[in-house]
Specification:
The chain is an alpha/beta fold. About 30% of the residues lie in helices and about 20% in strands. The protein folds into five domains: about 90 residues, 3-Layer(aba) Sandwich (Udp-n-acetylmuramoylalanyl-d-glutamate--2,6- Diaminopimelate Ligase, Chain: A, domain 1); about 160 residues, 3-Layer(aba) Sandwich (UDP-N-acetylmuramoyl-L-alanine:D-glutamate ligase); about 120 residues, Protein-Tyrosine Phosphatase, Chain A; about 220 residues, Alpha-Beta Barrel (TIM Barrel); about 120 residues, Lyase, Ornithine Decarboxylase, Chain A, domain 1 (Beta Barrel), CATH 2.40.37.
């Protein structure tokens, strides 16, 4: 950012009260704005906006901000023990938006605003690709299109820019009016209406009307009612519609037709993903090799600090696309600090080495790096830059697993689902996340570290060894062990795990072990059976339980809990209500006789979504954060996708058979594809013989014959497929709910059965 606000200007603009102004030196001006103290761009001239949300309060980080050299912040309430200047306003988010609106009004450049249900980011990046040689462009980084993201994006406008491109997204009525006021667009692009973010709107018409408010004052609006008339590198209809929007806008802005045609031929694939990949030698690879500008680098470096698994951090960086070399060099030195990155490896045709405060080296190409045979150990490695420099080749070389079949875990969707459940409970209610069975197949350690950053309160595991693995990976949150086996008591004690006590025998056994280990006041969780008839104390056992608890100082009750068995079935609401009443009675018996307070928790994912009165002090979420409790809930997003690639394409003739048992006999000549996923990967054999179709190039390809251990065959009739094409086994376009229905099972069983040889890839879009 290149802002220039005096403190007096900000105070007047925001109508703010002010404290601590004496801590600022004469002629102090604000040059940039942040909302996260982990931002690598933080300097003494940075304004920190202390936002407050359902899971976090920026006021808690004012001390950290000051310790890093920050001098001024916008707050809702003053923090007295932090010696910085504080501008006190009613609503810090509204203050951020006022600053962004004021900054935008200083520039008369054309501004393109993009909205719609799908394709906003793709259209924005394609517009940038086509127009970047003609205009100096400022644009939203990644998919920064929210009430906060738009404001931060607008603050990047500077005198060097001749065009702005910003996307705007809304999830409820009333939001777009604020975005329009900030962006003040001169041109509009509307990508159309789909199902995304429909929950808060009464109808598609209402949602469309709200989105169109963005274009109230534009000179020209482009919509996607036509297909692109020039050739592009993509054949699907969605891409052709997106390209048509780019074509219309580019021609309107005066680009020659021949130039537009040429640039459309080279449209790049767009990904807003930050992929986390297991690397060789105990490394973690973060692949963000999709864009090359200062804004996205700043965001990636902040994510690097959040995700970091190992203390040593390495950055692979290609040349950036920003126009001014002097600005790039200065910004790189500001962003790449020794406490953030310990080594930088530049890859690309650089003719000089930027001056940095960390060790750096240049390789002119990915190939030259690969020839160097460089290796890394115990490091988190971020890859950032343009695809054209071949960083993907380096990622592939350093990755630990090469199996093309992978389970993709979308952290952005998971974050959305977690926030949905947060919206169903009170802000003070704690959240426990079950990560048993490798977090339902999603990966125990990786999921846990992501969830820690989401400010949850507790983890739950099935067995102690899972808790030990979490502790060894650096997890410090409390961990509840649901099945505390006697052989694991020492590990439970040594690693500060908290056992579920579900019977008199388990309590006596664990207390005896605590006596031998000379332990006192060890936290335990009392499991109550309220009707599921699985583990837990029944009501008749409560008096005996209390007699033991009151004379054994070795333990204290951290919580009492039970489990709802049919909270996802509306027809069984009466049974669930009975469980809630029984839990009230049984936990009340404990509360009446114990001399101290303990927490209570009952609701699982379905209970949290459907029964407010089951909230108590904490809720336990598991499969729900993957969006797999209710296929009709449009607020929950799909998190998991199982993908692979076509290994080989064969032409078979009428009368040919396919696979073991010759269960498929071709009635005519056609092509089949062999894909490297079988029942040893988790693709159940019950899906054989056209009981499931994979998706290739947007079209269904039925599985033919019997699924093998390591591969299966699919019918490619009507699909223009090539070897190496991506195959979606289940995911956004191929519902795992439908797969479960075909198998007469539940989604849990499917994802828990995906084998460890299937590569887990974590993305954040």
């Amino acid at each position: 950012m290149n802002l220039d606000f005096s403190v007096e200007q900000l105070q007047n603009l925001l109508g703010a009260d002010i404290t601590g102004v004496s801590t600022l030196h004469d002629h102090f001006n604000v040059r940039s704005v942040i909302i996260d103290t982990r931002n690598p761009a933080l300097t003494e001239n940075t304004l920190f906006i202390a936002l407050s949300g359902s899971k976090e309060d920026g006021h808690k980080y004012l001390e950290t901000f000051a310790a890093k050299g920050g001098k001024i912040a916008v707050v809702k309430r003053p923090v007295t023990d932090v010696d910085i200047c504080q501008l006190i306003v009613k609503d810090p988010l509204e203050a951020l938006q006022k600053i962004a609106e004021n900054h935008r009004r200083k520039f008369t450049i054309p501004v393109i605003a993009i909205t719609g249900s799908n394709g906003k980011t793709i259209v924005k990046e394609w517009l940038y690709h086509v127009l970047k040689d003609t205009y100096s462009i400022v644009r939203s980084p990644k998919s920064y299109n929210s009430q906060i993201g738009v404001a931060l994006s607008l603050l990047e406008i500077s005198n060097s820019h001749t065009l702005g491109i910003f996307e705007a997204g809304i999830s409820r009525p009333g939001e777009m009016e604020k975005l329009e006021k900030m962006i003040q667009p001169t041109l509009g692009v509307f990508t159309g209406i789909g199902d995304a973010h429909s929950a808060n709107f009464n109808s598609p018409d209402q949602k469309e009307a709200e989105k169109l408010l963005l274009f109230t004052h534009v000179k020209k609006l482009f919509d996607n009612t036509s297909l692109v008339s020039y050739s592009i590198p993509f054949s699907d209809e969605a891409s052709r519609k997106n390209a048509a929007l780019v074509q219309q806008a580019a021609l309107y802005l005066g680009l020659p037709e021949a130039r537009v045609r040429e640039r459309l031929m080279t449209l790049p694939p767009v990904s807003m993903r930050l992929e986390q990949i297991e690397g060789k030698n105990n490394c973690l690879l973060l692949n963000d090799a999709y864009s090359a500008d200062l804004q996205s680098l700043e965001i990636a470096l902040k994510q690097l600090q959040v995700i970091t698994k190992y203390q040593k951090r390495i950055l692979f960086l290609t040349p950036l696309e920003d126009n001014l070399k002097e600005q790039v060099d200065s910004s790189l030195q500001q962003l790449i600090k020794p406490e953030i990155v310990q080594q930088v490896i530049f890859v690309g045709d650089l003719d000089y080495l930027p001056k940095l405060d960390v060790p750096a080296i240049i390789f002119q190409s990915a190939e030259s790096f690969l020839k160097s045979n460089s290796t890394f150990e115990n490091a988190t490695i971020l890859f950032k830059g343009s695809r054209k420099y071949g960083l993907e080749k380096i990622v592939q070389q350093l990755a630990a697993k090469k199996h093309v079949t992978k389970l993709v875990i979308n952290f952005a969707a998971l974050r959305n689902n977690l926030n949905y459940f947060r919206s169903r409970i009170s802000p003070e209610t704690k959240i426990l996340i079950m990560v048993k069975a490798q977090s339902y197949g999603g990966g125990l350690v990786e999921m846990a570290h992501f969830l820690v950053d989401q400010k949850i309160h507790y983890f739950g595991v099935a067995y102690a060894d899972e808790g030990v693995q979490l502790r060894k990976s650096g997890i410090t949150l409390p961990i509840l062990v649901m099945n505390p086996e006697q052989s694991a008591y020492d590990e439970i004690i040594d690693f500060n795990l908290e056992p579920s006590i579900y019977s008199p025998e388990v309590l006596d056994s664990f207390v005896h072990h605590l006596i031998l280990r000379q332990q006192h006041s060890f936290p335990v969780h009392i499991k109550l059976d309220t009707g599921m008839n699985r583990l837990g104390f029944v009501e008749e056992q409560i008096p005996q339980l209390l007699d033991t608890l009151q004379v054994q100082p070795e333990v204290y009750v951290k919580s009492a809990f039970s489990h709802l068995s049919v909270a996802d079935d509306e027809a069984e609401n009466r049974f669930t209500s009975n469980q809630i009443r029984t839990f009230d009675i049984m936990s009340g018996m404990l509360a009446d006789r114990l001399s101290y307070k303990f927490e209570r928790h009952l609701a699982n994912s379905a209970g949290t979504a459907n029964f407010n009165r089951a909230e108590y002090d904490m809720v336990r979420l598991g499969i729900g954060i993957f969006g797999l409790i209710d296929k009709d809930n449009k607020e929950l997003e799909n998190v998991l996708s199982l993908t692979t690639q076509i290994s080989q394409i064969k032409k078979i003739k009428a009368g040919d058979s396919v696979g073991y048992g010759r269960t498929y006999m071709a009635t005519h000549d056609h092509s089949i594809g062999v894909i490297p996923v079988g029942y040893a990967d988790g693709l159940r054999r019950g899906l054989s013989q056209e009981n499931w179709s994979v998706i290739i190039k947007g079209k269904p390809a039925p599985i033919i014959g019997n699924i093998c251990m390591d591969m299966c065959m699919v019918n490619l009739e009507g699909i223009d497929a090539q070897t190496g094409d991506e195959v979606e086994v289940f995911g956004d376009n191929n519902s795992i709910f439908e797969m479960a229905l075909n198998l007469k099972t539940i989604p849990y069983e499917i994802i828990a059965g995906i084998s460890s040889r299937v590569h887990r890839v974590y993305i954040d879009e």
